[in-house]
Amino acid sequence: MRSTVELSENLLADAKRLSSLRTNREVIEAALSEFVRRRRIERLKARLGNCDLAITQEDLRRWRDED
């Protein structure tokens, strides 16, 4: 799909440099993929909720030794 958008040249240049990607398209697709991935993780965490695990380091050592 083709779209025309105005982007900050400095932000795009920084993203290219930090990611080692070569084209604007690669940088934008990587950024969108990362955005979607993070939002999916946030939603999954919200759905799963929190649980209180009272595990000590001694418990972990014992479980590892049992395997």
Which blocks of ≥5 consecutive residues have pLDDT under 50?
A: none
**Portion in strands:** under 5%
* Biggest sheet descriptor: none
Q: Quaternary status of these chains? A: single chain
Number of helices: 3
Radius of gyration: 21 Å
The helicity comes to: 55-70%
Q: Kindly report the average pLDDT value.
A: 91
Judged by helices, strands and strand pairing, the structural class is mainly alpha
Distance between the terminal alpha carbons, to the nearest Å? Answer: 52 Å
Number of β-strand runs: 0
Write down the secondary-structure element order. HHH
- Principal-axis shape equals elongated
Number of domains: 1
Pick out its properties.
mainly alpha; elongated; single chain; 67 residues
Overview of this structure, please?
The protein is mostly helical. The chain has one domain (about 10-65). Helix content is about 70%, strand content about 0%. It has helices spanning about 10-20, 25-50, 55-65. It is elongated and about 55 Å long.
Topology:
Elements (H helix, E strand, L loop, with lengths): L8 H11 L4 H25 L8 H10 L1
What's this model, at a glance?
This protein has 67 residues and is mainly alpha-helical. It has one domain. Helix content is 69%, strand content 0%.
